[in-house]
């Protein structure tokens, strides 16, 4: 009898689990279908019938993405950030202010989309506040919700979720680093790394941390583009061809968090940094370019669409980014570079986006390609930093002083634009210590 009950309960749990799995598979299928439909609609609006397929991220697939450096560079030169569109040279800081506008316009119209002129306001509410222990540091922890005014279109509700903590011991307002964070369900929690977490490291430094949840206000798929903040602004309609993509919308949320920090007496809003990994590394780059108030950036393994040269034929390609699984990160116009145009037709490249962060300090992080894989293209991210360096120099700052790829665990950390490839995989984890050391000279003065 006992065995029967155990068997029965195993069966029931198994059945429950498979229902959950089925439901989430169904939800995933329906998101993929709606995304494909919206993607198709954008292609029709662009007059595109067919796109070139991207290579596979699976290194043993027959159409695996290239990982042979000798085939990576189908171009002679990258576009020069210090030459105006009309061919004139950018010689001074004043020239750069004008050139910035040209570059920004290209990125807005062709890659990330335009920030809408009118975006509803946000009211922040602290929904939970308590003293908490993070490792050995006592901190003031807060959970906040940013309520977006939806009176223009009440059918769509948008709320921004954020958590943050600042050290209790601090004497005045503290610098803070905000991360675009994933929220992992309890069943999928990542194992705690050895040693202090990044939050504990920041708090021990006397700084605060914040975790902004991008998907709370804009879904990470094409199916969600008629909802979230993009959908609210468009009153539930499809995007126009130069409308903002999800990366820019996530960046908008980070700016609204910064608005909140300006009202929080525990935070020094002039010393707030933005960090993200992978797709959130791309979002951190976009956020920093759009928001001059961010004091420092930490872009980890951001790869294609982030700090990797679009033109490089190595790892992930524009064709992957423009597909129905990822096009939502960008403006619909970007799709055309996967057919009929090619990445070589882009009027700009990623180093010019990175240069738009100058003169503010930026840390580019990568994993070891032997561990992380080649999809992210560590060399491509390094080359982006090299090619953005002349802009830092023009503005009186220090870019990378070598174009020799350093490989693993050799940080190029002396300038204001720095690069370090750690020996781990697809994580920023091991680079937090180095980032904090780098950031000290800007945040602790
Ligand atoms: C995919 C995608 C990348 C992205 C990554 C991530 O691999 O192709 O562009 O950076 O997911 O966000 O984890």
Structure description:
The protein is an alpha/beta fold and 445 residues long. The protein has one domain: Rossmann fold (3-Layer(aba) Sandwich), CATH 3.40.50. 33% of the residues lie in helices and 16% in strands. The protein has helices at 2-46, 93-112, 198-204, 228-233, 246-261, 279-290, 318-321, 350-355, 369-372, 378-394, 432-443, and strands spanning 122-134, 137-148, 159-167, 174-180, 208-213, 267-277, 296-300, 362-366, 417-421. Strands 1-2-3-5-4-6-7-8-9 form a nine-stranded mixed beta sheet, with helices on both faces. Helix 3 links the parallel strand 4 and strand 5. Helix 5 (246-261) crosses helix 6 (279-290). The chain is globular, with a radius of gyration of 22 Å. Mean pLDDT is 94; it is low at 1-17. The structure holds alpha-D-glucopyranuronic acid. Alpha-D-glucopyranuronic acid binds at residues 278-279, 303-305, 316, 320, 375.
């Amino acid at each position: 009898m006992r065995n029967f009950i155990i068997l029965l309960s195993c069966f029931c749990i198994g059945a429950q689990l498979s229902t959950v799995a089925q439901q989430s598979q169904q939800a995933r299928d329906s998101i993929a279908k709606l995304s494909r439909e919206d993607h198709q609609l954008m292609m029709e609006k662009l007059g595109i019938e067919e796109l070139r397929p991207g290579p596979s991220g699976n290194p043993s697939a027959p159409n695996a993405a290239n990982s042979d450096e000798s085939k990576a560079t189908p171009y002679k030169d990258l576009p020069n950030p210090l030459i105006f569109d009309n061919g004139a040279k950018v010689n001074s800081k004043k020239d750069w202010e004008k050139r910035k506008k040209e570059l920004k316009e290209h990125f807005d119209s062709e890659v990330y989309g335009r920030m809408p002129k009118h975006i509803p306001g946000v009211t922040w509410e602290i929904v939970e506040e308590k003293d908490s222990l993070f490792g050995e540091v006592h901190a003031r922890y807060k959970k906040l919700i940013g309520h977006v005014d939806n009176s223009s279109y009440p059918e769509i509700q948008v709320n921004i979720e954020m958590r943050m903590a600042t050290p209790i011991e601090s004497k005045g307002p503290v610098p803070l680093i905000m991360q675009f964070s994933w929220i992992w369900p309890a069943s999928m929690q990542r194992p705690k790394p050895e040693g202090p977490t990044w939050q504990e490291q920041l708090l021990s430094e006397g700084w605060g941390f914040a975790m902004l949840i991008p998907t709370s206000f804009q879904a990470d798929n094409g199916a969600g583009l008629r909802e979230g903040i993009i959908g609210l602004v468009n009153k539930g309609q499809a995007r126009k061809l130069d409308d903002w993509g999800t990366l820019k919308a996530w960046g908008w949320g980070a700016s609204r968090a910064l608005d909140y920090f300006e009202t929080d007496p525990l935070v020094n809003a002039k010393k707030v940094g933005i960090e993200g990994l992978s797709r959130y590394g791309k979002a951190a780059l976009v956020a920093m370019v759009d928001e001059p108030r961010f004091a420092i950036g930490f872009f980890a393994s951001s790869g294609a669409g982030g700090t990797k040269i679009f033109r490089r034929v190595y790892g992930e390609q524009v064709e992957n980014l423009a597909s129905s699984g990822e096009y939502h990160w960008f403006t619909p116009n970007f799709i055309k570079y996967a057919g009929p145009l090619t990445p070589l037709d882009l009027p700009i490249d990623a180093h010019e986006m990175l240069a738009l962060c100058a003169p503010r300090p930026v840390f580019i992080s990568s994993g070891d390609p032997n561990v992380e894989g080649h999809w992210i293209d560590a060399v491509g991210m390094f080359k982006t930093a090299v090619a953005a360096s002349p802009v830092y120099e023009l503005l009186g700052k220090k870019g990378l002083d070598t174009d020799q790829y350093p490989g693993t665990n050799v940080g190029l950390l002396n300038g204001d634009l720095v690069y370090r490839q750690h020996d781990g995989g697809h994580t920023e984890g091991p680079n937090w210590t180095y980032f904090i050391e780098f950031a000290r000279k800007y945040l602790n003065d």
